[in-house]
Specification:
Structural class: alpha/beta
Number of strands: 9
Largest sheet: 9 strands, mixed
Number of helices: 12
CATH architecture of the largest domain: Alpha-Beta Complex
Order of helices and strands: EHEHEHEEHEEHEHHEHHHHH
Distance between the termini: 48 Å
CATH class of the largest domain: Alpha Beta
Shape: globular
Helix content: 40-55%
Low-confidence stretches: 1-5
Amino acid sequence: MTATPETPRVSAVIPAYDAAAHIVGAVESVLAQTLAGVEVVVVDDGSRDATAELLAGFGERIRVIRQPNGGLSNARNRGIAEARGTFVAFLDADDRWHPDKLARQLARLESDPALGFCSTRTRVEDPAGRLLNHWDCPGDEALLETLFLRNGAVPGSGSGVMVRRDLFARVGGFDESLRSLEDIDMWMRLAAVSGYACIDEPLTLVVKHPGSMSRNLAVMRAAALRVMRKNRHLLPQATRGRLWRAGYASVLADFAKWEYRAGQRGRAMLHLAQGLALAPLSRGRMLLGLLAAMGAGRTL
């Protein structure tokens, strides 16, 4: 699709559910972009708080789509369907963008037609603004294979990625049957049909809320394994078995660490043992190191 004066080059899609505490900051970070003419589409996914009233304050600077609550993937898919831009960028309601983010991503994608999506290095903070982590760009290896080995390989994920909108006609929308990791599922499908780029600057800000990981461990574990099984066929046949085993072991190691930190030490040890049974030599060493740390009671 070629942008015309009536067609914005970029549409920003923001799903929002009971987001009154954060939505103004998210929308303002889009309106502050140095890239001119960005279409802002907010999907109010059945909010029961003051989200609608706060969005109304932006007037005609944004488009608000109101719908009954359908979940995050459903709201993103509605945003894609409503968006008019050649490119779509996603932003969660409690996250923020650096003013140059969209301009930098658009320039990168327009420089190479083979690139279908682009993310940026990401700064991770707690709600008080304290730095928790940086999510870095992946290396030069094939992204699809990297996603199987490391689910967080696309930094920023649901708030960091810009996609050519016409690619959704090829890969479909976000999987509305998934309760978690629906973004990883989408990046796997996109990586199978298009190139990927990452801007190596922290242009995306993600806010992590306390306790959110431990409350959802069971849901995330089930989703991680389901996403891997669903997309296993996308891997090169020659390396499919090896990558599947290594990826499965990596997921088990991640959950063992989270479970250990959440005080679920029995489950952590079980998942480490299962990972060791699957892991190739290099990941086996990593799992053994985690096992030793747990046995010594060290912080992971």
